[in-house]
TrEMBL record:
This is ATP synthase subunit a. Keywords: ATP synthesis, CF(0), Hydrogen ion transport, Ion transport, Membrane, Mitochondrion, Mitochondrion inner membrane, Transmembrane, Transmembrane helix, Transport. Its main location: mitochondrion. It holds the Pfam family ATP-synt_A. It comes from Carcharhinus plumbeus (Sandbar shark). The gene is ATP6. PROSITE patterns: ATPASE_A.
Length: 227
């Protein structure tokens, strides 16, 4: 049976039971548990430093009303980074390559930020649909354009994360397949291809972390507009 390059994105199943729930829940087990000791180990200390720096950078431009989102956005950031990085290991499944999962994250959080803006400051929230100083003939057109761009935001969040991870996985599989095929035909070319694959893997590790950060950063910007 010939395997397609896109078969790696199929949700794994056992006896007809989808295992995507396990792929989502198991990464939480990799997080170290803090202890009551005065001195923690290096892993917990590094994790605490990373979380503190991330929360500081994320919440600095947001007023105090939005700081209650810090725990939610930090948990989402750690969750996405862990899933993305574990998905780079061999024989693993990356749930964030599924648009449905990414949209399940993006749509409710985006909608919550919009509803918060409409409830707390409706005038300012609606004012974002019409830039200041707009000529009168352009007002209806700009309102329509800004409304469309507002509703496209959650789709852009989900598609950006899905597309970047999917493209990276496909490119790695293509180069790995080429290196394996060329190994017996042209060993020198296969070695160069393997070096390219190694560099691409390092790049994909960076992309996995950056895309998780961008996802949460854009949500924080949407929150900043409405708080």
């Amino acid at each position: 049976m010939i395997m397609s390059f896109f078969d790696q994105f199929l949700s794994p199943s056992l006896i007809g039971i989808p295992l995507i729930a396990l792929a989502i829940l198991i990464p939480w087990l990799t997080f170290p548990t803090p202890t009551n000791r005065w001195l923690n180990n290096r892993l917990i200390t590094l994790q605490a430093w990373f979380i503190n720096r991330f929360v500081y950078q994320l919440m600095q431009p947001i007023n105090l009303g939005g700081h209650k989102w810090a725990m939610l956005l930090t948990a989402l950031m750690l969750f996405l980074i862990t899933i993305n990085l574990l998905g780079l290991l061999p024989y693993t499944f990356t749930p964030t390559t599924q648009l449905s999962l990414n949209m399940a994250f993006a749509l409710p959080l985006w909608l919550t930020t919009v509803l918060i803006g409409m409830l707390n400051q409706p005038t300012i929230a609606l004012g974002h649909l019409l830039p200041e100083g707009t000529p009168t003939p352009l007002i209806p057109i700009l309102i329509i354009i800004e409304t469309i761009s507002l509703f496209i935001r959650p789709l852009a969040l989900g598609v950006r994360l899905t597309a970047n991870l999917t493209a990276g996985h496909l490119l790695m599989q293509l180069i790995a397949t080429a290196a394996f095929v060329l190994l017996t035909i042209m060993p020198t070319v296969a070695l160069l291809t393997s070096m390219i694959l190694f560099l691409l893997t390092i790049l994909e590790v960076a992309v996995a972390m950056i895309q998780a950060y961008v996802f949460v950063l854009l949500l924080s910007l949407y929150l900043q507009e409405n708080v």
